[in-house]
Amino acid sequence: MHHDKHRAFRAALSSGQLFTAMAAHNPLVAKLAEEAGFGGVWASGFELSASHAVPDASILPMSSHLEMCRAMAAVLSVPLIADVDTGFGNAVSVSYIVPQFEAAGASALVMEDKSFPKDTSLREGGRQELVRIEEFQGKVEAACAARDNRDLCVIARTEALIAGRGQAEAIRRALAYEEAGADAILVHSKQKTPDEILAFVAAWPGRAPLVLVPTAYPRLTERDIAALGKVAVVIYGNHAIRAAVAAWRSVFRQIRQDGGLLGVEPGLPTVAEIVELQGDAHMRSIEQRFLR
Ligand code: SPV
Ligand code: MG
Questions:
Q1: Which of 32, 87, 248, 268 lies 20 to 30 Å from 185, alpha-carbon distance?
Q2: Are strands 19-24 and 40-43 parallel, antiparallel or unpaired?
Q3: Per-residue pLDDT reduced to its tens digit, 171-193
Q4: How far is the CA of 136 from the centre of ligand 1 (A)?
Q5: What is the CA radius of gyration of the chain?
Q6: Which atom of ligand 1 is nearest to the CA of 45?
Q7: SS (H, E, C) 44-61
Q8: What whole-number distance in Å separates Cα of residue 146 and Cα of residue 237?
Q9: What is the mean pLDDT of residues 261-288?
Q10: pTM of the predicted structure, to 2 decimals
């Protein structure tokens, strides 16, 4: 059912064209991202945690991440990139979770080299502890060995820059993860300018394509990233939940201010639009065929 999407994502890694993925945390948001023309969807742990009003710090169980992925992949015809955080434990844990995310329909998995339980990357003063390089190589190898479909991509994410360990350590780690079999390397930075990431990309001596998450340095555009040549994927990490929070706050505030609904009505999608997004046409066709 998901094989075409897996093939499409694997092909995108070496296509020479930048693949774009928008964050989502539920199937409706995922469908809207596809509708807007993103190449794929990022099943963001940050967004999932935020949507439960808890920190992105290994607090929600793996089953919540898995169910989000299953539900989103079920409505998508573009690839889903699953954020599996640290792999929810060690290489043994990874060996057991990879088949589950594969069965859920993920076309790629992103696993980061932080220790479990993790803290979120972009928070000021976060607890950023990295596991040993050899330990994470074992986790990458375990992920690659545990997949059934060879087109399922394993993306190793280094948090060396996030942890303040510098470019040399980030490159050392990324090369070690490539050697362990990673199909691509995600390198994350929380610097407010693109300089740190641009320096990493320029210095990257590996063959594996790179993945960037430009949340902290939004001035770097897709055109800039494509021109770098070594980056295959850009992930927009948290813009769905931030857009939603802005919209919810504004509409709720206005209804309280006005003491009624008339003021917000013109700016909202109609109920009919939401019904359509629910897949109403499909249910109507079932009704016609089978309800007697
Ligand atoms: C996420 O969206 O869950 C990510 C990206 O992992 S970040 O929050 O920037 O670490
Ligand atoms: Mg995450």
A1: 32
A2: parallel
A3: 999 999 999 999 999 999 999 99
A4: 19
A5: 20
A6: 3
A7: CHHHHHHHCCCCCCCCCC
A8: 26
A9: 97
A10: 0.98
